[in-house]
Specification:
mainly alpha; single chain
Length: about 240
């Protein structure tokens, strides 16, 4: 199967079967999302959502968080991974927002990655979710699923190389939601250790599955009408 066909058929499947896909982090504004994404590094969204209500309540603005010491912030986030570093990052991030960005979350990659605790992945999440930009955040789920499905080649050995390959092949209008399609598929179906291939509607389009089990790849994906009918039957 040619790469263009693989992308078209896999994206069509997601469009039909996952028309709504969004972040599972709880937030009410860009500032809260920025905090939550920083905390989510190497930590589950479920854990982050458990601790952010109190944090958001007591530090509702960049000014409030900037006035807090890392030691105080640590007590709110101590159950996440690397709480010491993240407490320092949150304090520094809030101070920079106040001092250099007028307490507003910036919208460009260059500005976002200046903030303490914000790397390329976090910046791309903010660009995509808050500003609806064509930015592809590559976490472990996106990295794994992209390789297994055959969306990227084995030569893509870094998150940046995967990001560039996905950006090149996914239509710009689909990139913001495609980020969530791949994350959620990796989180609930294409698991790292025990992927649920029997439950996966993409298995006959999946390069790893068809190679591992010597299955015949789908020569032609069902029409969109047929896919909609199949999706309705599974609800």
């Amino acid at each position: 199967m040619r790469k263009k066909e693989r992308y078209e058929q896999i994206l069509d499947w997601f469009r039909i079967n996952r028309p709504i896909a969004e972040t599972e982090l709880h937030y009410e504004n860009p500032f809260q999302l920025l905090i939550a994404v920083i905390l989510s590094a190497q930590c589950t969204d479920k854990r982050v959502n458990m601790i952010t209500p109190a944090l958001f309540r007591d530090f509702p603005t960049p000014e409030a968080l900037a006035a807090a010491s890392p030691e105080v912030i640590f007590e709110y986030i101590r159950s996440v991974s690397y709480p010491n570093n993240k407490a320092k990052h949150l304090a520094g991030m809030a101070r920079m927002l106040v001092e250099e960005f007028g307490s507003q979350v910036p919208g460009t990659l260059e500005e976002l990655t200046r903030l303490p605790g914000v790397g390329r992945k976090t910046a791309n999440v903010i660009q995509s979710v808050v500003f609806n930009k064509a930015a592809m955040a590559v976490d472990t789920h996106v990295f794994r699923v992209s390789h297994r499905l055959g969306l990227v080649s084995e030569r893509c050995t870094t998150p940046l190389s995967v990001e560039k390959e996905l950006m090149k092949n996914i239509p710009e209008a689909d990139i913001p939601i495609a980020h969530h399609w791949l994350i959620l598929h990796g989180r609930y179906v294409c698991l790292a250790r025990n992927p649920k291939c029997d439950e996966c509607g993409l298995k006959m389009l999946c390069k790893e599955y068809t190679t591992q089990y010597h299955a015949e790849p789908a020569a032609k994906q069902p029409t969109k009408k047929k896919m909609k009918q199949q999706a309705e039957q599974t609800k």
